[in-house]
Amino acid sequence: MRFATLALTLTVALGVSGCSRFGSDSGLNPLGWFRSGSSQPTTLEPRGGWVTQDQDYRPLVPQILSAGFEPINEGKLLIVTGFAPVKGWYDLEIKTERVQPAKQLRPDDDGILRLVLVGSPPLPGSPAAAMRANPQVDRLNVALPISNVQLLRLRGIEVRSATGGVSLRP
């Protein structure tokens, strides 16, 4: 009698554990015994894949005129002034050369933060693409805030454009 009770208890326990949430993909789950084919794992990745920073097709701004720092409460504001030979450049940004997590500025192994100045030129054939820019008036100003914590990790900052660049010490 004790053997029958023990066998029944073990059979029920094994059946229940095979149907549990954590053991649902095991061979002990009787609901999966008659399923054919393999189930595909579910993912949160979009169909076209994740958009990464290196898929940015904006070209480098042709020239950097100046770069400097302005103090702010949480650190410093890096201000870069660029120049393009034609008017109408838009969507300007200072980006890191290496792909990094969003809103993080990590220097390379030598302590130098390498940045690039990118933007979108005017569309070919547009009126802005035919207008020559004046270096005294048509400057491209872009700013990047750098916190005090990020500044402590930096030995220097290099900002690159299409024809050159500038180096700064924080």
Structural features, described:
The chain contains 3 helices and 7 strands, in the order H-E-E-E-E-H-E-H-E-E. It starts with a helix and ends with a strand. The strands form 2 sheets. The chain has a 4-stranded mixed sheet, with no helix packed on it. With 170 residues, the protein is of the alpha+beta class.
Structure summary:
It comes from Paracoccus jeotgali. With 170 residues, the chain is an alpha+beta fold. It has helices at residues 2-18, 127-130, 148-152; strands at residues 63-72, 75-83, 90-96, 112-120, 140-147, 156-160, 165-168.
Coarse shape: elongated
**Secondary-structure element order, as H and E?**
HEEEEHEHEE
Largest sheet, order of strands side by side?
3-4-6-7
Total count of domains? 2
Structural class: alpha+beta
- DSSP helical segment count: 3
Overview features:
2 domains; alpha+beta; four-stranded mixed sheet; 7 strands; 170 residues; three-stranded antiparallel sheet; elongated; 3 helices
Please outline the helices and strands.
Layout: H1 2-18, E1 63-72, E2 75-83, E3 90-96, E4 112-120, H2 127-130, E5 140-147, H3 148-152, E6 156-160, E7 165-168
Parallel strand pairs: 4-6
Antiparallel strand pairs: 1-2, 2-5, 3-4, 6-7
Organism: Paracoccus jeotgali
Protein name: Lipoprotein
